[in-house]
Amino acid sequence: MVFVTSSSFFSDGSIFRYMPNACAMVPSSTLPADLAAVVEYHAR
């Protein structure tokens, strides 16, 4: 799972504790091409 957020709620990294299959947490300002690259990488 890749989480995209505009808040700093999980900035402490706790999302990785709550969702063990989380792969990344990226800001909502992430470019679509960069987000697609992250998803493609983790889909392998």
Number of H/I helices:
2
Strand order of the largest sheet: 1-2
Shape: flat
Provide the β-strand percentage band: 15-25%
- What structural category arises from helix and sheet content? alpha+beta
What would you call the quaternary organization?
Answer: single chain
- Count the E strands: 2
Distance between the termini: 13 Å
> What low-confidence regions span 5 or more consecutive residues with pLDDT below 50?
none
Mean of all residue-level pLDDT scores: 82
Order of helices and strands: EHEH
Search tags:
44 residues, two-stranded parallel ribbon, 2 helices, 18% strand, flat
Describe this structure in words.
This protein has one domain. The radius of gyration is 11 Å and the shape is flat. The protein has helices at residues 15-18, 32-43, and strands at 2-5, 24-27. A two-stranded parallel sheet has the order 1-2. With 44 residues, the chain is α+β, with helices and mostly antiparallel strands. It is built from 2 helices and 2 strands. Helix 1 links the parallel strand 1 (2-5) and strand 2.
TL;DR?
This protein is an alpha+beta fold and about 45 residues long. It is built from two helices and two strands.
